[in-house]
Amino acid sequence: MTEKTVLIVDDEAAIREMLSVALHMAGYQCLEAQDAQTAHALIVDHQPDIILLDWMMPGVSGIELARRLKRDPASVDIPIIMLTARSEEDNKIQGLEAGADDYITKPFSPRELVARLKAVLRRTASAGIDQPIEVEGLRLDPSSQRVSSGDRALDIGPTEFRLLQFFMTHPERAYSRSQLLDQVWGGNVYVEERTVDVHIRRLRLNLGVKHKHLVQTVRGTGYRFSTKV
Fold this sequence. Notes:
This protein is elongated. The chain has helices spanning 13-25, 36-46, 62-71, 89-97, 110-126, 158-169, 177-185, 194-211, and strands spanning 5-9, 29-33, 50-54, 80-84, 102-105, 133-135, 138-141, 146-149, 152-154, 175-176, 215-218, 222-225. It is of the alpha/beta class. 43% of the residues lie in helices and 21% in strands. It folds into 2 domains: 5-126, Rossmann fold; 133-225, Winged helix-like DNA-binding domain superfamily/Winged helix DNA-binding domain (Arc Repressor Mutant, subunit A, Orthogonal Bundle). Strands 2-1-3-4-5 form a 5-stranded parallel β-sheet, sandwiched between helices. Helix 6 crosses helix 7 (177-185). It is built from 8 helices and 12 strands. The two termini are 25 Å apart. The model has no long low-confidence stretch (mean pLDDT 87).
């Protein structure tokens, strides 16, 4: 499971069910709302990680709900994917200007939806994370793409840098190889799971004796970044 929660907002029960099944199969948890009022209550109570929002709904439309959510400090950072049968360029621009992070035209395949959802989550997760992170003297600076140990700069390749950045921003949790592939390489890139092991070995080598213990093997699961033994 990704432990990411998706709020599906659509007035058609059949569409909500189809989306929920596809997302559950991809490892997501789902909440469902048939109108804007129910959606807003679920957002306040559960703070979903992303919202799939139908444009055409009775009462408050999806486009109006998107505008309201982007005006509210409590929901402004929750990414939104608009789902709509409207395919004209002006409609897409209107949806994006209302605050949507992506726009999918019906009909669409569940595979395309999941791929687009993963892309938006990756994009929004990395947005704004440019402050240096430091753990036990190991310092990663996203803006300059540099890693250092104390006063010594470490030579780390781009993939190992992304892997380390993900680990340092998601500490103390075990991730499987497939989860790391999704988060670091991207869900639409075909890479074998054993490639993760190769880059983990390189990362540990780059970190050296002082810090390699932070990247830990979790038997039967994958890897985690932890300061605990």
